[in-house]
Write a structure and sequence with these properties.
three-stranded antiparallel sheet; alpha+beta; single chain; 232 residues; two-stranded antiparallel sheet
Length: 232
């Protein structure tokens, strides 16, 4: 075999090995995506998936860190004898309470961010009013001569609607960025994430009422016990 033929065979073998490695990497990546998707679909309470979501996003976006916060309104502490509205704090302003973070950025957990701090709160304001876009929904109109289609038969192609986000290309150039530590070069993205969960404002109120009811009943039992011991 001539030298150029050997070189050609060697290159073919190298390309084949590279292709196999890429296919294996792609298959492994898809397997991780499928496993995570299945876990989400089976999860009863999506709150239990938020730490896994942060880790998943970090791996599949190549981000330095991912952290997840919840928009909360601070509550007043509740004590024995309080009514079911004692936890309401009408003067409190909503803040973002960071609850989950990827490895190496645990210092973010339990930090809070108010509306006047940073740029993150912009995601709750939503996008600006959309301008008319003829390509946003393409309607299929029957051509002349075709049978007239009913309204339900007219097809519309609507683009996928992604969660609203705020993107800063270089954080050190944006004076609105809030830092929890020393500033570092890089980009920042905040995404408005909404999902259905078992925990909500009404459930919290119900829990407070139930807790107060338990305390009341416990006090009544203690009084009954004291009366019984006195009679004995």
């Amino acid at each position: 075999m001539k030298r150029h033929e050997k070189s050609y065979q060697k290159r073919l073998h190298k390309d084949e090995e590279k292709k196999k490695a890429e296919e294996a990497t792609s298959a492994e990546r898809q397997n991780k995506i499928d496993k995570f998707t299945q876990a989400v679909e089976k999860q009863h309470d999506l709150n239990d998936m938020l730490q896994s979501l942060a880790t998943y996003l970090k791996e599949f976006t190549g981000a330095t860190a991912v952290y997840i916060g919840k928009l909360e309104t601070p509550k007043n502490p509740v004590e024995d004898g309080d009514d079911d509205k004692a936890h309401d704090n009408a003067e409190a302003e909503p803040h973002i309470h960071f609850c989950y973070a990827t490895e190496g950025h645990d210092y973010i957990v339990d930090q809070t961010l108010t509306k006047g701090q940073g740029i993150t709160f912009d995601v709750f304001e939503g996008p600006p009013p959309e301008e008319e876009n003829p390509d946003a929904a393409a309607e299929v109109i029957p051509e002349e001569g075709e049978e007239e289609k009913t309204q339900t038969e007219v097809k519309k192609e609507v683009p996928e609607k992604l969660p609203f986000h705020v993107l800063v290309d270089e954080v050190v150039r944006n004076p609105r960025i809030h830092y929890f530590k020393v500033p570092r070069l890089g980009s920042f993205m905040a995404v408005h994430l909404e999902y259905e969960a078992a925990l909500h404002e009404e459930a919290f109120d119900d829990g407070v009422r139930e807790m107060l009811g338990v305390h009341k009943r416990r006090a009544e039992l203690e009084d009954e016990k004291a009366e019984w011991e006195k009679e004995e």
